[in-house]
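#lab-general

N.A. 3:47 PM
ok so I finally got the sequence cleaned up, no stray characters, all 346 residues accounted for. can someone with queue access submit it? mine expired

B.Y. 3:52 PM
send it over

N.A. 3:53 PM
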Amino acid sequence: MTDTPNQSRCADCGAALSGPFCGQCGQSDQDIRQPVRTLFTDFVGDAFVWDGRIWRTLRRLFANPGALARAYANGQRARWTQPIRLYLVISLAFFSLMALAGVRVLAVTITPDAQTVRAQDAEVVQQRRDRLDQAIAEAARAGNPPPQLCGVAPGPDELAENGALRLAQDTSVLITLFQFTPTPEGRELSPEDAQCLDTLMRSAGLPAELDRAALTDPQGFETRTSAATGQALILMLAVFALFNLMLHPRTRIIEHIIYALYFHAALLPVVAAALLGAHLLNALPGSAIAIAVLANLASLVQAWRADRAFYGSSWYGASLRLPVLYIGYVTGLVLAATLLILLPVL
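B.Y. 4:20 PM
back already:
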C-alpha cells in the first residue's frame, strides 16, 4: 500500500498510520504535548470512566476479591481494572481520607500530657511522686536495684525557663497506629537526661534514638515515619504473596501477586471504615473494641472465601490454612511496623 501525501507516520517505529494506533508497534498517535490539566483528566478517565470497568470491578472486588483475582489471572482482563492500578487508586483514596479525617497514621503519646504538667495541681503532682516512691519500694522488697529514673522530679522543675516542658522521672512514651488525638508537645532533654535515657534504653536492648526522637520532636517523628507507610504496605503485599506461595506452591508467583493486590485493595476500605466508625462511636463504652473485633472477623471471613475462590480450596483446606496465613501476616505486620518506626530515626 502506498502512502497518501498527508498520511502521518508513527513517531516510534515510522510505520504509516491508518488509525489512532500504530498497526506495527501499537503506540498511540496522541500528542503528549498538552496542557498539564490533561494529566489529571487522563488519569481520572482511565481509572474511573474507562468503559465503566472500575465500577464493575469494585462490585466484584467487595463481593469476593478472590473470585475477581481468579477471573483476571485466567485471562478475563478486558472487563476488569488492572490490579496494580486498582490498588494504587484505592490506597491513594485511603491515605487522602485519613489525612482529611485527621488520623495520625503512626502516633506518639506522651504521659503525663502537657496539660497535666502545666496545670501543676498539687494533688496530681503528689500522686505522681507517690507512684515513683512505690515503684522504688517494690524493687527494694524484691531485692532488685532501684529503677533508673531520668529527668527531674514531678513538680515545678518540669517547666523550663523558656516555657518548654522538661523530661520528668515518670514521663513515658508510647507509639501506636491510627490515632485521632492531636500530636503531643515534646519534652526538652538536658545532656544528662539524654545520657541517662540512652543508658536506660540500651540496657533494655532498644535503640536510644527511638525514645529521643519521639520525646523531643513528636511532630517531626510522626511526619518521617508516616511518610514510609506506603512502603510498608508494599512490603505487606510481598509478605501476603509469600505466605500464599508457601501454602500453595503449585500456583505461579504472578498469580499470588495478582491475588495480593486485589485482596489488599478490598482490605483498605475495611480498615478505613473501622477507624472512622470507632472514632464516631468513641463515646459508647467498648465501641472501639467491638468494631475492631467485627473488622477482624469480617477480614477473616473474606480471606477464607477468597482463598476458596482463587485457589479452589475445599472449605476445610481453607480453614486449616487460614490460621497459618493470619499468624504469618500479623507477624509480618509487626515487623513492618517496627521497621517503619525505626528506620527514620536510625
